[in-house]
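Journal club prep, shared notes

We agreed each person brings one worked example of a sequence with its structure written out as tokens. Mine is UDP-glucose 4-epimerase. I'm keeping it raw so we can talk through how to read the token line rather than staring at a rendered picture. Sequence first:
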Amino acid sequence: MEVMSKNNCKNLVFSSSATVYGQPESVPCTEDYPLHVTNPYGRTKLINEDIMRDVHHADPEWKIVLLRYFNPVGSHPSGEIGEDPMDYPNNLMPFVQQVAVGRKEVLTVFGQDYPTRDGTGIRDYIHVMDLASGHTKALDKLFTTPDIGCAVYNLGTGKGTTVLEMVAAFVKASGKEIPLKYAGRRPGDCREVYAATEKAEKELGWRAKFGIADMCRDQWNWAKKNPYGYRGHQELEVHAQKFIKSEPLSNRHWAL
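Then the structure, token by token:
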């Protein structure tokens, strides 16, 4: 922001997160809910939000929109752009897709004793294409509202889906079985969080268009076309080299 200010660029759309709400006392979460983070990631988002509010307060020329994402999933419908975690997936859907393509043997579900309809956590999953359109609407608002200040909007569908419901939707979309194993709750995970979307609908003219069936369809389209993500053939080459090193010389003539 210091560099932006020096160059007289004082318009900013920031990617925040619903994790700033922590576990709300009730759902859906409105933008004016008390903020109570429960994990380090959420803390970083809240700190950034606070910095931006302070910057605007100190210099009202700044126009800022804070977009609180809920749970982004899915891929570009072309199957050419998608999510490819470099390390162990921390989010549900990349983990699910890695099981579906054989990169992981089983999906670990953290927590089956939440007071929800099937015992698993409830989240508001939103298609990445809806998030993209939310950004364009936020930019429109930023450049057409001189007194916008530092505004906050939720980007979610307003609907809560359990982990098991999301897995079932992916199984239906892909035709692949997803073996499950259950583990205890992770520290910082919340029982149920989903968005109130009325403010974004009213002030941005934005509303999510895609449901979980669309999200899973597009996520699977990406996964089946790119089972090793952007690494593709590089990943296969790594496996081949490991095989060469592990196989006896006498076996290589038929194995390669």
